[in-house]
Amino acid sequence: MYKKYNKTSYILLLPLEVNGIVNQDTLIAMDKALVDGWKYKEPDYKKAPWVKTAETQIGVSEYAGKHKENPQIREYYKAGKYLWATDDSGSVNAWCGCFVAWVMQKAGYSSVKNAFRAKSWMSYGKKIDEPVHGAIGIKSRKGGGHTAFIVGKSKDGKYYYMLGGNQSDQVNISKYKKEDWDMFVVPSKYDTTNAKLPIYSKQADKSSKES
Fold it and tell me: What Rg do the C-alpha atoms of the chain give, in angstroms?
């Protein structure tokens, strides 16, 4: 087992009898402890509370066909005050900004005026120089913008993993190039002192269309 030594280090505690003799049983116990227990642990980081809400929506997707819609996406529209949307087809009614609005409101945070417009989120809260877990990212795309929550980065730092709506017509976590994103914001009173962006090693979709 391990005992925490300081914020980033652990010391290994072996369940061995102190008898002054390094015998075969001692060597076996040491070897097993090292094999079973010596695993890298990601340092603790502050997790944005609203991400848990967003994660519950992964898998929500559009219904095929005009004038058909997933009732949950209609709830996103209501949160973003995009009440004139006729259905959930992304090409006509992009809903990424509405998804962000729904998540933030459900988590007890404010939204932004014209939340249905992705780039309206640029004026939300406070801008941060480096993204942290859960920050709202905004990017440009042909014909408009896109917004989503950042949940991690690649080991080399070249890619960001974004949890968002209307990503390939659904809510998912997609992989994007770092340079795709224009800015990141968080709620104005959110303390980012101990916040950071973790390495993301789980499954993710490749970014494709956002409309």
Answer: 22
Spatial separation of the C-alpha atoms in residues 112 and 188, rounded to whole Å:
12
Amino acid residing at 95: W
Please report the pLDDT score of residue 200 as a whole number.
95
Helix H segments across the chain? 24-37, 50-55, 71-79, 96-106
Q: How far apart are CA 168 and CA 172, in angstroms?
A: 8
Cα–Cα dist 67/86, whole Å: 6
Q: What number does CATH give the domain 50-206?
A: 3.90.1720.10
Tell how strand 172-177 and strand 159-164 pair up.
antiparallel
Residue type, 201: S
Q: Residue 198 contacts by C-beta under 8 Å, 6 or more apart in sequence?
A: 42, 45, 133, 152, 153
Task: List 137's β-bridge partners, or say none.
Answer: 148, 184
96 with 164: CB under 8 angstroms? Answer: yes
d(CA 22, CA 86): 76
> Is the distance from CB of 83 to CB of 77 less than 8 angstroms?
yes
Q: CA-to-CA distance for 10 and 107, rounded, in angstroms?
A: 34
Block means of pLDDT (10 residues each) for the chain, 211 residues, are: 51 55 63 52 76 97 81 95 77 86 97 96 97 97 93 97 95 97 97 94 79 60
Q: What does the alpha-carbon distance between residue 1 and residue 205 come to, in Å, rounded to a whole number?
A: 36
Provide CATH 3.90.1720.10 ranges for the chain.
50-206
